[in-house]
């Protein structure tokens, strides 16, 4: 196995381990918060589309 391939496999293993740890921690959390919008507030819903 070449050195570049070894580094790539090591980096992929670290990333997979971090994602698995995140999944385990979020699955065992009592209050899971969805952060789809980041830290900004949720925008108000649009009632009527703008007229042209």
Order of helices and strands: H
Shape: elongated
Compute the gyration radius: what is it? 21 Å
- The N- to C-terminal Cα distance equals 63 Å
Q: Kindly state the mean pLDDT as a whole number?
A: 80
Structural class: mainly alpha
Give start-end ranges of low-pLDDT stretches: none
The proportion of residues in beta strands is under 5%
How can the largest sheet be summarized? none
Please describe what this structure looks like.
With 52 residues, the protein is mostly helical. 48% of the residues lie in helices and 0% in strands. It contains one helix and no strands. The chain has one helix at 3-27. The N and C termini lie far apart (63 Å). The model has no long low-confidence stretch (mean pLDDT 80).
Strand and helix layout:
Blueprint: H1 3-27
Short description:
By secondary structure, the chain is mainly α.
Could you name the key traits of this structure?
52 residues; 1 helix
